[in-house]
Amino acid sequence: MRSCGRQYARPHIHRPRLLWPADQLLAAAIFGKTLKETASYDVVRRSILTEDCCSEVRPENSARTFSNPAEIVRKAVNDGLIQKRHRLLEIGSGCLRNAAYLLNYGVQVTARDLPGVIRRYQKRYDRFVKNGGKLLPFGSRIPGTFDVVLSTFTLETICRRAERLEMLQELIESLNRGGRMVLAVRGPRDVKTAAAKGQRCGDGYITPQKTFVKPFTVKELTSLLSRRGLSILKIYSGKKQNEPKIIEIVAEML
Questions:
Q1: pLDDT digit string, tens, across residues 230-250
Q2: Whole-prediction pTM value?
Q3: What is the pLDDT of residues 92-125, one digit of tens each?
Q4: In this structure, what are the phi and psi dihedrals at residue 142, rounded to the nearest 5 degrees?
Q5: Which candidate in 16, 161, 184, 198 could, as Cys together with 152 as Cys, close a disulfide (CB 3.0–4.6 Å)?
Q6: Are 19 and 38 within one domain?
Q7: Sheet strand arrangement including 199-201
Q8: Cβ burial 1-11 (10 Å sphere, 16+ → b, else e)
Q9: Residue 35: which domain range?
Q10: Residue 189 and residue 241: Cα distance in Å, rounded?
Q11: Using an 8 Å Cβ cutoff, are 144 and 175 in contact?
């Protein structure tokens, strides 16, 4: 299957055909750009066709079992960026390694993940709710509610770029004014196996386990956040290089 690579960054089109309003929205969702920057139905159409391979992905397979919280969660707690009584939403809560740890610490935690993931860890989720945690049904949103939104190693597992950007926007919209986003993603140096053994799909790879991974660079991620009104507070991992194994970042809603 032909790779789309980076062909979407400012495509060169001599005679663009203007899009209808619905297609303008689709172009903006896919590219994160304005109509003047995309301005072609053919570009949008090609991007959709090259992501047909996403139908092969099984997102629930990305959830893995851990006994300890992600490093960025411990760091954010130690630095006071996540505090007791904070209202926190985690999207992509998986096995609840972060949510259960934070709930025990005294944070008011709401968790959300795919129904298949919740069924896989049903006993953990039942215990989480019994101990005072809350679940947000998949697809539900509570805008402007939370002091902190958290997502670790989830954003890069979403195959379609438009859906990936939608999730990022959802995290941002869930924050109240001055709220913080705590985000960890995989970088290029951490996806060598996927690149070597996986199948190229869109801007990432489908692994032999039918999961998807799209490695982020530091510049790419900070740019995505800055353009959406967030100020970068701290970069724990990936600060000294653009293509690290892991990027751990905390940003604040302006």
A1: 999 999 987 778 999 999 999
A2: 0.78
A3: 999 999 999 999 999 999 999 999 999 999 999 9
A4: -135, 85
A5: 184
A6: yes
A7: 199-201, 204-206, 212-213
A8: eeebeeebeeb
A9: 1-50
A10: 11
A11: yes
